[in-house]
Design goal:
- This protein is an alpha+beta fold.
- The chain has 10 helices and 4 strands; from the N terminus they run H-H-E-H-H-E-E-H-E-H-H-H-H-H.
- A 4-stranded mixed beta sheet has the order 1-3-2-4.
- It is globular, with a radius of gyration of 18 Å.
- The termini are far apart.
- The structure holds zinc ion (ZN).
- Zinc ion binds next to helix 5 and helix 6.
């Protein structure tokens, strides 16, 4: 676009990796029709635009192999967040499943990650169910760390844009308030604050650190 303005340096994440994720995340937000950085991105609407079909677990349960079903509903039921099928449906859509026991905020982040895998051209080799630890890191051994990081980080940046989180931190909002605004978990917001190199400022604003220590 000819009239696109050049982004001031202060509006770009300070790290190269951060900028890499932010550019793609902004593309996703534009695709979803969002114009402002404070607008909440609804991954469920974006999924429809992206030709992804988010099925309820009940709908897909009969399609799963015994082994997969046993893992997802048995001892692994608390360990997975979501997954994408490698084959497209007859409708041309790709099937996504989300763990029905997780909160909507957590499902938002999971769905954004799955959407990012598709948008970034990551190829699922099977029904790739994500297994994550408490810290949000993928713990299944057969995952490519770089691919997972790119998808998760891009999704998180699309949900909580850099310029918005920077402004909200400067205004003294808590991570809980920012999380509520964007319908994501507090952990995701704190992750965004940290990777955006805003954690020291955040602590000062919240009265959690002596400004002399920063
Ligand atoms: Zn993933």
């Amino acid at each position: 676009m000819a009239n696109r303005q050049v982004t001031p340096a202060s509006d770009r994440p300070p790290t190269q990796k951060g900028r890499h994720h932010e550019v793609r995340a902004q593309g996703l937000r534009e695709f979803a029709g969002l114009r402002f950085d404070h607008q909440r991105l609804d991954p469920f609407s974006l999924a429809r635009f992206a030709n992804l079909f988010v099925a309820s677990f009940d709908e897909i349960e009969p399609l799963l192999s015994d082994e997969t079903r046993q893992h997802l509903t048995g001892e692994g039921k608390d360990l997975w967040s979501g997954g994408a099928a490698s084959h497209t449906l007859p409708s041309g859509e790709r099937l996504i499943i989300l763990n029905p026991t997780h909160s909507r905020n957590r499902q938002n982040a999971t769905l954004m990650e799955e959407i990012c895998h598709v948008f970034l051209g990551h190829k699922p080799s099977r029904l790739a169910v994500e297994t994550r630890g408490k810290d949000g890191k993928v713990i299944a051994r057969d995952y490519n760390h770089a691919i997972e990081e790119e998808a998760y980080s891009t999704g998180a940046a699309a949900l909580v844009p850099y310029t918005a989180v920077k402004r909200m931190v400067a205004e003294g909002l808590t991570s809980q308030q920012i999380a509520r605004h964007f319908a994501v978990s507090r952990a995701l917001v704190e992750y965004r604050i940290k990777v955006s190199r805003l954690w020291a400022e955040y602590k000062v604003k919240q009265g959690l650190a002596d400004p002399d220590d920063v």
